Amino acid sequence: MKTHAAIAHYDSSTLSAEALDLLRSLIAIPSVSRDETKAADLLQARIHNYGFETHREANNVWAVAPHYTEGRPTLLLNAHIDTVKPVESWTRDPFAPTIEGDRLYGLGSNDCGGGLVTLLQTFRALAATDQPYNLIYLASAEEEVSGINGIRRALPLLPPIDVAIVGEPTGMQPAVAERGLMVLDLTAHGKSGHAARQEGINAIYEAMDDLQWLRTYRFGKVSPYLGATQMTVTVIQAGTQHNVVPDECRMVVDIRTNELYDNEEVFHFIDSHTKSEAKARSFHLRSSHIPLSHPLIRRCTDMGMQPFGSPTLSDQALMPFPSFKLGPGQSSRSHAADEYICLGEMEHALCCYLQLLQGTDLRTP
Fold first, then answer.
1. Which is it for strands 182-189 and 277-280: parallel, antiparallel or unpaired?
2. Mean pLDDT, consecutive 10-residue segments, the chain of 365 residues?
């Protein structure tokens, strides 16, 4: 089937075949987070062979489409190179790309190799003609660990971005909002003493009021796509032995923010309502969202797609511009044993990307 007539000499079958070939090659190269060099080398060479000038920072690789023009909006197509470590319950070699029926098995096939290679072929096809926007393709590293050598190193080196599509597996439905993440370390202080004489101040008891507040407090602003901001106490550590009253109780709190709250705002609110000493490990993994009125989201809905909110974190958290996730595959397969993506999902994604982006005016009203 031919894609849009303006897509030069490329057709969907050629692009799909190239995407599949590249994905099989990538699966065969272990690229666990912080060890993506060989996979980045392969991607860079393939993009260069397609005729594009490549750029690289650490293991982040990108290309800017020809016809770049100052003053036009700029669209970023992004997906990540790295994978998690394979779990023990794999029943096949995670680094041996295997096709069975419509399924391609292999580590990273679904998260997010399918999006990585189909977005590259989309970039290649769209770059063949002048679009009403500038176009950049970025394959980023260390996404699975939010590493300092990932997209954070690359974004400052790119031209200004107006909007991004992130190729995470969403079943090719637009994830218009994504939860943020903030981890807090809370420490309740007491005074040690001998348990038999009831001496000291028990830090566990000092922490109890804070634990109860963290358990029962409900944030007022509820997102239509992400629901409420959530707090969960996930780790508690206290005490050294049975007969010593503990002088410290340490707690870890996992906080998943919606787009209606800023991480710093939530931190200061919690700090003001708890007695324990509170420290945030970072603030940079923020919730993200894109207005439903954005031209790309309107175009998605016109094509019959259904916007939704995503509970899982991605490189969107590090993007200071509007973005949304849209990619082949299903999030439920990510990080699971015997991970796979369907060939039909990749073919469908490629056609959807081209239909969505060919000639689209990205200027917001």
1. antiparallel
2. 44 91 98 97 97 98 95 97 96 97 97 97 96 97 95 97 97 97 97 92 96 97 96 97 96 97 97 97 94 97 96 92 96 94 97 96 84
Give the closest residue to 316 by CA, choosing from 172, 184, 163: 163
- Both structure tokens of 302: 């016109």
CA distances from 53 to 21, 65, 280, 309, 341 (A): 21, 9, 40, 35, 30
Determine the Cα angle at 51 with ends 342 and 359, to 5°. 65
pTM of the shown model: 0.90
Q: According to the 3-state scheme, what is the secondary structure of the chain? A: CCCCCCCCCCCHHHHHHHHHHHHHHHHCCCCECCCCHHHHHHHHHHHHHCCCCEEEECCEEEEECCCCCCCCCEEEEEEECCECCCCCCCCCCCCCCEEECCEEECCCHHHHHHHHHHHHHHHHHHCCCCCCCEEEEEEECCHHHCCCCCHHHHHHHCCCCCEEEECCCCCCCCEEEECCCEEEEEEEECECEEHHHCCCECHHHHHHHHHHHHHHCCCCCCECCCECCEEEEEEEEECCCCCEECCEEEEEEEEECCCCCCHHHHHHHHHHHCCCEEEECCCCCCCEECCCCCHHHHHHHHCCCCCEEECCCCHHHHCCCCEEECCCCCHHHCCCCCCEEEHHHHHHHHHHHHHHHCCCCCCCC
